[in-house]
Design a protein that fits this description.
globular; alpha+beta; five-stranded antiparallel beta sheet; Gyrase A, domain 2; 197 residues
């Protein structure tokens, strides 16, 4: 008996041509199949320390992200983090973390199908996002490593600042809002077409 691997469809697979039409100061690309795991654990607990040891990271504090390794760790709440890693590592990471946690009180759940990620870069990122997001993206307010759950054009997102002055960000959005958000980004970028740079 042959078991067929299910075909995966990115929520924004048909948007690449639209993103390519954006002005040069705003590049948008989808990172569609990132491994995403939700970690629920009490900060400073034995389970949290076991996770930190297993991943060789420190769980970031409020409104921060740890971006240095292959596994990015995003603070989502007082006892919740989102682990984002390259595609296809769900099973390996789940096994590694569950083994590290053992009988300690914590939970790790695969939520990879829940969201997609948009990577934005360029000197227009801050300006475009300011049209639909109330977060102050000035580097003094949101330096590199900031991780904020907010709204962009009324769509719930997690915004991760990856470059100085928000010149590079990730927008993590639920798959059901992805097309709406892509439409908004393309529309918001339209007025900058033909501008220098």
């Amino acid at each position: 008996m042959t078991v067929e691997t299910p075909i995966r469809f990115s929520p924004l697979s048909e948007w690449q041509d639209d993103f390519a039409q954006l002005p040069t100061g705003l590049q948008v690309r989808e990172l569609p199949y990132l491994t995403q795991l939700t970690l629920r654990v009490a900060p400073g607990s034995a389970a949290a320390k076991a996770v930190e040891s297993a991943l060789d990271i420190t769980l970031p504090g409020p409104l921060r992200a740890e971006l240095s390794g292959d596994v990015k760790v995003l603070w989502m709440g007082p006892d919740e983090w989102l682990l984002a890693a390259p595609e296809g590592l769900q099973d390996e990471l789940l096994a590694q973390l569950r083994s590290a946690i053992g009988d300690e009180f914590a939970a790790v759940t695969d939520v990879s199908a829940q969201r997609t990620t948009l990577a934005l870069s360029g000197h227009l990122v801050r300006e475009v996002l300011a049209q639909g997001c109330a977060i102050d993206l000035d580097p003094r307010a949101t330096p590199v490593g900031s991780c904020l759950t907010t709204l962009l054009a009324q769509a719930p997102i997690t915004l991760v600042v990856r470059g100085e002055g928000a010149s590079s960000v990730w927008l993590l959005v639920r798959s059901s809002f992805a097309s709406y958000l892509a439409t908004w980004l393309v529309d918001a970028g339209t007025e900058y077409r033909g501008s220098s740079g």
